[in-house]
Amino acid sequence: MTPSPSPTGRPAAPATASGSTASGSTASGLTGLASRLLESPLWDHAVVRILTLLMATALVLLVITVPLTLTQQLLFAAASFAVAMLLSKTEGRLPTLIMIVLSVSASMRYMYWRVTDTLGFETLVDTFFGFGLLAAEMYALIVLLLGYFQTAWPLQRKPIAMSTPPEEWPEVDVFIPTYNEPLDVVKQTVFTAMGLDWPTEKLKVYVLDDGRRPEFRAFCEDVGIGYVTRDNNRHAKAGNINEALKVTSAEYVAIFDCDHVPTRSFMQICMGWFLKDPKLAMLQTPHFFFSPDPFEKNLDTFRHIPNEGELFYGLVQDGNDLWNATFFCGSCALIRRKPLEEVGGIAIETVTEDAHTALKLNRLGYNTAYLAIPQAAGLATESLSGHIGQRIRWARGMAQICRLDNPLFGPGLKLGQRLCYLNAMLHFFYGLPRLIFLTAPLAYLIFGAHVFESSALMIAVYAMPHLMHASVTNSRMQGRFRHSFWNEVYESVLAWYILRPVLVAFINPKLGKFNVTAKGGVIDEAYFDWTIARPYIILMLANLIGFVVGIGMLIFGTNDEAITVMINLFWTVYNVGITSAAIAVASETRQVRASPRVAANLRAGLRFTNGKTLSCETEDFSQTGLGLRIPADVDVPIGQQVLVSIFRNNDEGVFPATVAFRNGEHLGVRFHELNTQQQVELAQLTFARADNWASGWGQGDRDTPLTALRGVMRVGVRGFGMFFKHLYSMAKTPRSARKAAQPKLDTGD
Predict the structure, then answer these.
(1) CA-CA distance, 305 to 299, in Å (whole number)?
(2) 629: left (phi over 0), alpha (psi -120 to 50) or beta
(3) What is the pLDDT of residues 102-133, one digit of tens each?
(4) Between these two residues, 671 and 650, which has the higher pLDDT value?
(5) How many CB atoms within 10 Å of residue 347?
(6) Cα 367 from chain centre
(7) CA–CA dist 443, 546 (Å, integer)
(8) Hey, is 639 helix, strand or coil?
(9) CATH architecture type of domain 169-382
(10) Sign of CA dihedral 481, 520, 262, 10
(11) How far apart are CA 416 and CA 25, in angstroms?
């Protein structure tokens, strides 16, 4: 899987290490020897490569298929896992690849045993539940294998500096599409886009207003940028951008969602690769959010546990880049106009127009690229219902692509590209498998179905290595951007809601509509979203019933199946924890600020009406105010008018403000009637700073599976308590009031 340099300018994978601290000179020496063998000129000969591949394939098939007794399988599994744990403490990419091989071997061995030794079902009930679970396991295995292929060797592309003088740099149009978002949200993106570090005469900013609002037109005229609208809303965001392509002409187009504020460095960070690679059509940067999503807000995990999207932008896209299969994500991207026009503009056939556009570009032989450096930041969805609605659209769109333009078929794609796109599509089909896993032990505990025609001990010695290898290998690979077990909470929350739209879109891709994700709102009062939580509550209660039945089987049943009952009870307890954690997500906390604060330590100063000044620094900032840290003994009365200075190198911005609160060393000020020029300057000194978002990217605590499991179970206990608390509260609330408080879920139907 080692990549080689490409004549089109795609870089070879760097030799940077990944993993944890080395555990000893012996392991490091073996790794060094293996690295030297991999670099041997012998591999330049096709015969050597083919023979090695045939031998490796034969060896893997032998490992997968050789029959072993219970004791032999236990010893084999223990030895393999011991090697994996030793490698997990060793630096370098080669140990990661070996861990992947061990994990794939354990998983394939389990599945081979599962298919050949456990399907002798005796009743219709056994057959129904048994083949249902097998289908879910097959899906999970395919996704696991594709995930390893996709992310085993992330490319880690670096920026290329601009080598030509600014007068030779190309022209760029910046598109900011909007539909129903508040002007205050759009303003920040406009102000920072106007300050992109690019020659002014070569940069044009356009607001693409599908809401056709007079105040937006007036704002654009006031700040001197372009305003594009149309007399219809056909094809939603894709149609909006395509209309703007007709009336603009720059060689490159940068696209930002209206709540994504770019940093000053965006253009210079991204453009170098286009000048190096004439076949490069699109370069994507991460979507970074400076506000918490509903999971982070309701579970209080913001900046502690990686959120749902960080794995995709932190690792998956970097892995896609190796295979020239980077997805366009609709925002924070730079696109060459000519290839985009060759494919007919932004794709309109599906509601995931962005990924479909990248697929079309790759089919024509163009390159796509990814830089894992946050160069913009935006607002996450505020409510769980809005978040689920957004994911439903993504899932529906990928199912549409699967039907209308399946990457496995058709011209123009290489095998690596096809597999990366396939994995992206298959991911959103997890709804049914996830629900099967959350109810599988109930088949035995409640219905008496034997979904495995094998002894409990044989199940354990085959299934546990598969699960444990997958856990430690994924933890090593994904540990900076996803913590173990949390993805099961994310998927459990969404599974019920994406199941029907995905299946419907797969059967009839023309059904459904584009639903806009609302941003920039507030949640005035905390509430429990009973409508959203209903599936999780049913699943939790069903597993609780299964647990009680299982305890009864242990107490009053025979000893013949005690181990089988215990295995199912452990599985049930785990499912209760996961579904209870999902219930906790449905408990919406208040969000009283429409303009979220961003934590940052910036050099600042206060100037008082008596002429005195005070040097200080910010604790956080927003477009409406600042949090400052000042000496506790300095008297600054609430309501006092001040001038606040914010510094960036030798630049200083001065803004009128009013003291809003004081608590010891903490001082809060609210800006007072900033004019347009001051708002632009404020955005440049705060949101547009290049170091705002990149400094903390992927720098959180690495994953430890057992620690992550404890964290998920703690959230599950909390969700369990929340359910009964809100149940008691609901009993005292009139039905009409409860109904009025629940948000409507927009599924796009």
Answers:
(1) 10
(2) beta
(3) 999 999 999 999 999 999 898 999 999 999 99
(4) 671
(5) 26
(6) 23
(7) 9
(8) coil
(9) Alpha-Beta Complex (3.90)
(10) positive
(11) 36
Strands (E), 143-222: 172-178, 203-209
Nearest one of 103, 99, 18, 47 to 468, comparing CA atoms? 103
Residue 190: closest CA among 204, 170, 171: 204
One-letter amino acid for residue 397 of the chain: G
The type of residue at 704 is T
- The distance from CA 396 to its chain's CA centroid, rounded to whole angstroms, is 17
Tokens describing residue 532: 């959203």
Confidence tier at 20 by pLDDT (50, 70, 90): very low
pLDDT at 519 over 60: no
Q: Quickly state the pLDDT bin for 15 (edges 50, 70, 90).
A: very low
Strands 203-209 and 226-228 turn out to be: parallel
3 state SS of 24: coil
What are 648's two structure tokens? 């960036």
Q: Round to whole Å and give the CA distance between 528 and 416.
A: 44
- Give start and end residues of each alpha helix (H) in 164-235: 183-194, 214-223
Count CB atoms within 10 A of the CB of residue 696: 13
Which two structure tokens, joined as six digits, stand for 23? Answer: 């555990």
User: What does each C-alpha distance from 190 to 201, 202, 257, 679 come to in angstroms?
Assistant: 17, 16, 11, 11
CATH superfamily of 601-685: predicted glycosyltransferase like domains (2.40.10.220)
The whole-angstrom separation of Cα 490 and Cα 177 is: 29
* Domain spans of the chain, in order of start: 67-152+429-521+527-588+712-749, 169-382, 601-685
Rounded to whole angstroms, the Cα distance separating 670 from 658 reads 5
Give the position of tokens 């507030």.
522
Question: What gap in Å lies between CA 121 and CA 131, rounded to an integer?
Answer: 9
Task: Kindly tell me if the per-residue pLDDT of 569 is higher than 60.
Answer: yes
Q: Which amino acid is at 561?
A: E
HSE (CB half, 13 Å, CA atoms) of 36?
5
Gap between the Cα atoms of 499 and 435, Å rounded: 9
The catalytic residue positions are: 210, 354
Q: Which residues contact 138 (CB under 8 A, 6 or more apart)?
A: 111
Q: Position 219: which residue type? A: F
